[in-house]
């Protein structure tokens, strides 16, 4: 992939002879939100730590911005922001004071503190002690810290973990804003399948240390659509089965006619055919498998 910011080739890693990653490959395009999806223990955090050079002695190649991580880690980290697991914050300091500590480390201007507070929506809480922040506010402050040096690539490990529904929505909107408005390429890991579907443009699915799927969200949705079905409630199941059996793959479940979904036009023709033959259609709907169903399907295969 010519525009890949991150390129991982045949990456393997073991903890005390226990294989955590097994020959995985990934490509993260510039300008994308890459949803790194998998259950807890699948290898997501291990992969992210390897991407940041926090773990070593792996097998395989990690290239970021076209440069080998092992030979240019310091230079590459200047272009990366990250939030791995729990944020490291000074609870006795205010939000602004936390940012000031890291500002001095990054050697950026004071106005950058105001800028990142505005980006993450914490301007009004800048003088509030972090110990009084909600978990969602702490997560957003941690992202503000990672944004101080204006990185091109943002790596977020389970940023919605533990948040209430309101906090999840705020985090989702922040991720989308950082990508679309501020041009950040974002790698975000999650076990919350529906969240990945709502934010990501690219998806990678990892299970037991192996990559099972990688592609665009559209690719994933096409797979999902291929597993969708049409459910119909009608007045005469026997007559409908006889009519449709020669043309469609059809079955009955709990008194409903089930036909594989092809397209909206196909569904309309199916409905018209039944009506033309005097069969009353009480209800017709398309049941689409959600991402969770699809994940179960992919991992089981």
Textual characterization of the structure:
This protein has 301 residues and is α/β, with parallel strands linked by helices. 37% of the residues lie in helices and 29% in strands. The chain is built from 11 helices and 14 strands. It has helices at 44-51, 73-77, 95-106, 111-120, 135-147, 165-180, 193-199, 217-226, 237-244, 264-276, 291-300, and strands at 4-15, 18-29, 33-37, 59-64, 67-68, 80-83, 153-157, 185-190, 202-207, 210-216, 229-234, 250-253, 256-260, 281-287. The strands form 3 sheets. The chain has a 6-stranded mixed beta sheet, with helices on both faces. It has a 4-stranded antiparallel beta sheet with strand order 2-1-4-5, covered by helices on one side. It has a 4-stranded antiparallel beta sheet with strand order 12-13-11-14, covered by helices on one side. The radius of gyration is 24 Å and the shape is elongated.
């Amino acid at each position: 992939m010519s525009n890949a910011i991150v390129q991982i080739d045949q990456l393997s890693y073991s903890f005390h002879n226990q294989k955590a990653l097994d020959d995985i490959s990934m490509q993260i395009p510039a300008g994308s939100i890459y949803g790194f999806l998998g259950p807890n223990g699948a290898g997501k955090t291990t992969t992210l730590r390897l991407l940041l050079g926090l773990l070593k002695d792996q097998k395989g190649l990690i290239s970021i911005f076209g440069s080998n991580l092992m030979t240019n880690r310091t230079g590459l980290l200047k272009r990366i922001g990250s939030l791995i697991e729990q944020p490291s914050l000074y609870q006795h300091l205010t939000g602004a004071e936390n940012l000031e500590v890291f500002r001095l480390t990054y050697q950026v201007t004071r106005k950058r503190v105001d800028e990142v507070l505005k980006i993450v929506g914490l301007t009004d809480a800048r003088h509030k002690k972090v110990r009084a922040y909600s978990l969602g506010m702490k997560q957003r402050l941690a992202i503000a810290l990672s944004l101080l040096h204006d990185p091109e690539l943002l790596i977020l490990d389970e940023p919605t973990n533990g948040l209430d529904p309101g906090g999840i929505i705020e985090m989702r909107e922040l991720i989308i804003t950082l990508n679309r408005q501020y041009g950040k390429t974002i790698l975000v890991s999650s076990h919350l399948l529906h969240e990945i579907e709502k934010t990501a443009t690219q998806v990678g699915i990892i299970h037991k240390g192996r990559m099972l799927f990688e592609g665009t969200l559209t690719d994933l949705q096409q797979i999902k659509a291929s597993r969708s079905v049409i459910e119909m409630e009608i007045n005469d199941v026997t007559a409908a089965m006889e009519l449709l059996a020669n043309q469609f793959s059809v079955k009955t479940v709990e008194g409903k006619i089930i036909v594989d979904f092809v397209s909206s036009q196909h569904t309309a023709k199916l409905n018209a055919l039944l009506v033309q033959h005097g069969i009353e259609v009480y209800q017709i709907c398309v049941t689409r498998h959600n991402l969770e169903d699809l994940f179960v399907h992919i991992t089981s295969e």
